[in-house]
Amino acid sequence: MKHEDIDKIFKNKEQFLDSIVTLCGWVRTVRNSRGICFIELNDGTCLKGIQLVVDEKNCPDYEIAVRQNVGAALKVSGVVVNSYKNKEIPEINITSVEVLGVSSQEYPLQKKRHTLEFLRTIAHLRARTNTFNAVFRVRSVLSIAIHRFFQERGFVYVHTPILTGSDCEGAGEMFRVTTLDPSKPVLQSESSRDYYADDFFGKKAGLTVSGQLEGETMAMALGKIYTFGPTFRAENSNTARHAAEFWQIEPEIAFSELPDLIELATDMIKYIISDVLKNCPEEMKFFEQHYEKGLLEKLKLIVDQDFAVLEYTDAIKLLKESKVEFEYPVEWGADLQTEHERYITEKVFNKPVFVINYPIELKSFYMKQNPDGKTVAATDLLLPGVGEIIGGSQREDDFDKLERRMKDLKMTIQDYWWYLDLRKYGSAPHSGFGLGLERILLYITGIGNIRDVALYPRTKGNLEF
Ligand code: 4AD
Ligand code: MG
Fold it and tell me: Which numbered atom of ligand 1 lies nearest the CA of 390?
């Protein structure tokens, strides 16, 4: 269907002035006043709708136009003119209206503004609102910015498998994948290899929680790689930051140590935020107006600011000295809870903070053990308002230390023989991190809940769409 994008008309008004254009889109509002029907038409190419002026004196389809409901799909033609009310804005004097698809009075998006909670119940329609138009455009631009950042630096984009036999994080959050007959009695011991012998893969399989382990094998061949794909966690935590399916970006770099990783993560965050600010000005203005006052200022500051680096041990000290009554006790060895992370980023530093060198017991088996015997060379990047958006570490490259740690954790070593092989053949210091796409999107848009930055969010008990 030949037609112009509404965005193009707004951006090149002078070029289109006095010419006839054809537009396709959906009715946002319709109102009738003394023989003139005003329709706001939106085609999704930008947040704004364009005003169509259907005058019964000039348009034989006037009667058709006035009968339309909000949500109807139209193909219209008309002359581009300066708006009667505001000369800066174009509007269209319509000469023909063709109805592509009618709508009805039951169309759920009647009001200008609905609550995000209500819109979740009609997730198949919510992309038609300005909020979700802006969210999904920023998500798209952000994704490409991430790719561009790594591509410009010579990283190879790797597609790691989604079906996997290894639980990278070992947190017991892996969704199981099976073709076993559910009516067959389940054996007592699920870890028994016999139980899964008849299963599709002949062993226990699941949806990946992280592409890291496979990514490491590629980094040890190609030097610098990154993954960018969906990861899955049977997260029971019902929070505004956790989803069962989320997209993760995981760079892995051979011949790199923790400080190199922190430098890379800092550069990446600054790069992608600058890119979104530059390429999504309308959307970002919208978020500033409707979701977070001061958002643009906050993001501009991030780009210019140094990020803080804080030892876990010093974080504990800070929290203890704060005299704040935290719900969760602060002790060396205890995990930092959201309230602690927020205190550190929002109250103490008011900027992004890399917390480094966590106690070994808190972190995954693969992390580089520090000489103190108590901590690992890990880092979490915490952002004000959102908390952890990146988790990463230098990897344990010493075969014996890694194997010992896996045994201590009672992991099935034979399942990871290929991962251990990396430490046998040309082992080298290497590091990587995982960035949660939805988490950084929350930070960039000022939206408060992960359910509102994913197309069809997967959380416990929710699989409607
Ligand atoms: O800290 P995590 O668990 O680290 C890993 O998975 C490592 N294998 C990454 C690596 O070193 N290659 O997760 C990384 C990031 C978190 O910081 C967070 O942003 C996001 O993934 N994330 C989630 N996002 C949404 N919902 C969840 N349930 C998430 N769990 C982690
Ligand atoms: Mg983490």
Answer: 17
Pocket lined around ligand 1, Cβ cut-off 6 Å: 168-169, 210, 212, 233, 235, 242-243, 246, 248, 250, 388-392, 432-434, 436, 438-439
Q: Report which bound ligand comes closest to the CA of 230.
A: 1
Sign of CA dihedral 317, 319, 325, 326: negative
Residue closest by Cα to atom 23 of ligand 1: 436
What per-residue confidence (pLDDT) applies to 123? 97
Rounded to whole angstroms, how far apart are CA atoms 182 and 321? 54
The residue whose CA has the least distance to atom 28 of ligand 1 is: 242
**380 C-alpha vs ligand 2 centroid, how far in Å?**
7
Question: Distance, CA 391 to ligand 2 centroid (Å)?
Answer: 4
What residue ranges define each of the domains in the chain, with the CATH number in brackets?
A: 6-101 (2.40.50.140), 128-174+209-452 (3.30.930.10), 175-201 (no CATH)
Low-confidence ranges of the chain (pLDDT < 70): 185-194
* Cβ neighbour number for residue 114 with a 10 Å cutoff: 16
Q: What is the pTM of this model?
A: 0.96
pLDDT tens-digit map of 185-223: 666 555 556 678 888 999 889 999 999 999 999 999 999
- pLDDT tens-digit series, residues 113-142: 899 999 999 999 999 999 999 999 999 999
Residue ID of nearest Cα to ligand 1 atom 25: 242
Q: Identify the nearest ligand to the CA of 212 by its number.
A: 1
